[in-house]
């Protein structure tokens, strides 16, 4: 059975051999997690990724991330995030569940016309 720690270890192992890759991990929808479980999860994340975690104080460009050895940006959607400089608050993302590339592009172009969120944002997509 997989657990969160095992998956995070696998991601770290993959990053070990792909030094110029950067991953964004989004933690949200914490159904049933109490304060102690949040503390444990955050501790696990920080222990596994240690110096690879990009702090919120950094300017996020690939060049900057590479030069400083940061490979992981963690978005953690919970109030506890304010206690840790290496965890980012919720990062807004655009997600379009579209079956065709043209519809996906049209959706993202429409959203761009209404302005992008400030700071860091993610764009995710799934084309079936």
TrEMBL record:
Which InterPro entries does the annotation name? PI-PLC_domain, PLC-like_Pdiesterase_TIM-brl
Q: Which SUPFAM superfamilies match?
A: PLC-like phosphodiesterases
Q: Which PANTHER family match?
A: PI-PLC X DOMAIN-CONTAINING PROTEIN 1 (PTHR13593:SF131), PTHR13593
Name the GO terms of the biological process aspect.
Answer: lipid metabolic process
- In which domain of life is the source organism classified? Eukaryota
Q: Which residues form the signal peptide?
A: none
**What GO molecular function annotations does the UniProt record carry, in alphabetical order?**
phosphoric diester hydrolase activity
Q: Which organism is it from?
A: Oncorhynchus mykiss (Rainbow trout)
Gene3D superfamilies per record: Phosphatidylinositol (PI) phosphodiesterase (3.20.20.190)
Q: What protein does this entry describe?
A: Uncharacterized protein
């Amino acid at each position: 059975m997989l657990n969160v720690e095992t998956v995070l270890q696998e991601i770290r192992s993959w990053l070990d051999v792909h030094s110029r890759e950067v991953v964004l991990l989004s933690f949200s929808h914490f159904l049933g997690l109490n304060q102690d479980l949040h503390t444990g999860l955050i501790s696990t994340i920080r222990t596994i990724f240690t110096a690879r975690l990009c702090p919120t104080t950094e300017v996020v460009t690939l060049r900057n991330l590479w030069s400083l050895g940061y490979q992981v940006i963690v978005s953690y959607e919970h109030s506890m995030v304010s206690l840790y400089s290496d965890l980012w608050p919720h990062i807004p993302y655009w997600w379009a569940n579209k079956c065709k590339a043209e519809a996906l592009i049209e959706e993202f172009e429409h959203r761009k016309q209404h302005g992008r969120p400030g700071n860091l944002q993610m764009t995710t997509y799934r084309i079936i």
